[in-house]
Each structure stands twice: as C-alpha cells, then as structure tokens.
Amino acid sequence: MTLRLSSAGESHGPALVAIVSGLPAGLELDRAAIDADLKRRQEGYGRSPRQQIEQDRVEVLAGLRHGRTLGTPLALVVRNVDHKNWTWGMAPWPPEGEPSGKGTKPVTLPRPGHADLAGVQKFGHTDVRDSLERASARHTAVHVAAGAVAKALLATIGISVAGSTVDEEGLRVRIDEARAERDTVGGLVEVRATGVPPGFGSYATKEDRLDARLAAALMGIQAVKGVEIGDGFALALLRGSQAHDEIDTSKRRTSNRAGGIEAGISNGEEIVVRAAMKPLPTLMKPLGSVDLETGQAGDALVERSDVAAVEALAVVAEAAVAWELAVAAKEKFGGDAVGDFVAAHRAYIERIAWH
Ligand code: EPS
User: Fold this and answer.
1) Distance from the first to the final alpha carbon of the chain
2) Ligand 1 center–CA 124 separation, angstroms
3) How far is the CA of 305 from the centre of ligand 1 (A)?
4) Ligand 1 atom 19, closest CA
C-alpha cells in the first residue's frame, strides 16, 4: 500500500487535521518525539506573538493503539488554540449571535506576495480571509506531525533526516534589523538525510524521480521560491570533470556534489537539498494594493505576522523530505507489518552488498 497524506485546516479554524494511510502495522510512535518537532517548528527566531498563543500538541483520533500503528489510517489533529478568539469569525456553520472577536469584518485589501488576490479571483470569494486562512503556513504544523511519523518509519531502517538554516547567525542579524524597520526577511534552509541506500526513486518516469519528488515537496511549502539538490545551480558553471562524483571500489563516492541523487535515484550518499524562502508578505509597512470593494488604491492588509519563519521552514522542510523518503522507502520495501518492511530492507542491502 502506498503511503499517503492528506490534510485540512484553516489558520484560525478549530483544528488542523492530517490523515496518513499506508503505514505498516506495528510501528511504534513516540508522542513526545512528535510534540518535540511541533515545538521546534514554533520556536524559530522571528516568529509572531501567535506562537505564544499556540502550544502545538498532537492528538491521535484513529489508527493507533497503545502507541503502535494498526495498519489503518492514522488521524492526527493539532488544535488551533487561537480559534477561541475567532469562534464567530471562523465558525464552520452560520454563526449565531452578534459578531464578536476577530474575523468579523471582510478583508478587502490583498497583500502582494500572498494568496489573497489570485485566491479570491480563482474561487470567487469576496472576503480575502476565505483564501488567506488556508494559504497560511499555519497548517504546516500538522505536516510536521506527519513528518515525525515518517521519521519513525525511516528510523527502523537506519535513515535519519535533519533540517537546519543556512548561516543561522547572519539570519538572526538580518531578522533583528528587519524587525527594527518593521520589515520581513527570507533565507535558506538545508535538509540532509543519512542512511538512504542506493535505489530510492527511479529514472523510469518523471513522477518516479526522487529529486523531482523532493523538489515538489519543498516547493509545496509556503514562501519557498527555489530548490536545489546537492550543488544545484553551482553545477551549471562547472566542467563535467569537476561536477561529478567519482566511484571508488566500494561503490561509494569520493565527493557528493550530486547531493545523493543521480538520474532520479538515490546513490547511497547523503541526500542534500536546499530551499530558498522569500521574505514573508504580511508587512507592517504595507505595499500598495487595491481595495476590492471600492476599486480605489489602498495599502495592503496589515495584521499580526512573523518577521521571518526561516527557522520554522527548516523543521517543515525536514518533515517534507522525511515524508517523501518514507513514501519512497515504502514503495521499495512494502510491508503490511513493520517487520516485513525491515526484513525487505535487510534482504536488499544484502543483495547489493551495501555497507
Ligand atoms: C501566518 C501568519 C501568522 C503566523 C502563522 C502564519 O499567524 P497570525 O496571522 O495568526 O498571527 O504566526 O503561523 C502560525 C500560526 C504557525 O503556527 O506557524 C501566515 O500568514 O502564513
């Protein structure tokens, strides 16, 4: 069974939900490990005061018994604590009583760089909030929970995945400067996966290619505008003799410019991917926009937001890469019971004599 993930949830709605199907039975999950990743995602430097409201914790509604997966769909929930301030504004059903709390007035001034304008045009909304709530990066919380589950599966075959920011010190300086000027910044993150054997993904079709899948997974995260695998863009300027990784007699590489992937297949070296995040589009000193109600020029919506979410992106990107690698691992090794999955991995490693 293919590993699948679907999610739902608005930023200020009642909760975020993810359903993970295709997990083998008998996989042990650690609630504290999932919650620790949720906390890491919230702690990044430059986050908004919203993070003091939320204390993300995973709830499991199905698919788990006494900490072990049942081989049935796993239902993960992360509640939005802030919803208590939006119970009228974000009520799923027509709200009763007088408007109160947040989200009672329609948003009509779309923010450049956000989903606001294209979202209302596409879906026929009149209130920009109907677009921005789902476009918000808030729902990455439940993807991080799913990523933690993926990491638990990968750990059974010795794979680990870690995300970090590139130049954390420089980033923090830029965040402080931008905050002082009421502006926002973006930045770079890197994810490394170790223990991935040769043979994840395939050259057979575009959809099979592991690099394409990782790029889509990273590009699918809010505010990501660029992705590279290994030395990526820098390879374009090198000669072939400088760009490729020589093979030694143990079939390992003496360098890793390819970032662990050749022809869409893992080659056994560390998988290295990077993502570039644009500066966040909700600005305290807003850019020019148009009022969708009056047609007049106006300043874009100003609301509480982050100065940067790059450190959060490192955690979200880690989860996204872990998820894709878990999908590829499940595809390669199968298994209805986790022991079958592990045994198939072991047999494969023996066949290719991989150390
Ligand atoms: C976000 C705006 C901010 C962030 C939010 C993403 O939320 P709010 O508008 O409620 O202040 O804090 O991220 C989260 C809540 C989160 O948990 O990551 C946006 O517009 O994308």
Assistant:
1) 28
2) 24
3) 6
4) 136
CA 100 to centroid of ligand 1, rounded, Å? 21
Q: How far does residue 137's CA lie from ligand 1's centre (Å)?
A: 6
SS3 302: coil
**Residue carrying structure tokens 């919380």:** 141
CA distances from 99 to 85, 118, 214 (A): 12, 28, 44
Q: Does residue 80 have its Cβ closer than 6 Å to ligand 1? A: no
pTM over 0.90: yes
Residue 26: helix, strand or coil by DSSP?
A: coil
Atom 20 of ligand 1: nearest residue by CA position: 136
DSSP H helices in 44-96: 50-53
Query: What SS3 state is found at 289?
Result: strand
Which structure tokens are listed for 107? 């948003």
Taking CA atoms, 52 is separated from 9, 198, 278, in Å, by 20, 43, 24
Q: For 222, which DSSP code?
A: T
Q: pLDDT in tens for each of the 355 residues of the chain?
A: 999 999 999 999 999 999 999 999 999 999 999 999 999 999 989 999 999 999 999 999 999 999 999 999 999 999 999 999 999 999 999 999 999 999 999 999 999 999 999 999 999 999 999 999 999 999 999 999 999 999 999 999 999 999 999 999 999 999 999 999 999 999 999 999 999 999 999 999 999 999 999 999 999 999 999 999 999 999 999 999 999 999 999 999 999 999 999 999 999 999 999 999 999 999 999 999 999 999 999 999 998 889 999 999 999 999 999 999 999 999 999 999 999 999 999 999 999 999 8
Residue to probe by mutation, ligand 1, list 48, 85, 142, 222, most atoms within 8 Å of CB: 48
Given a contact cutoff of 8 angstroms between Cβ atoms, the answer to whether 60 and 76 are in contact is yes
Domains and CATH numbers, the chain: 107-352 (3.60.150.10)
d(CA 351, CA 342): 14
* CB of residue 85 inside a 6 A radius of ligand 1: no
3-class secondary-structure state, position 165: strand
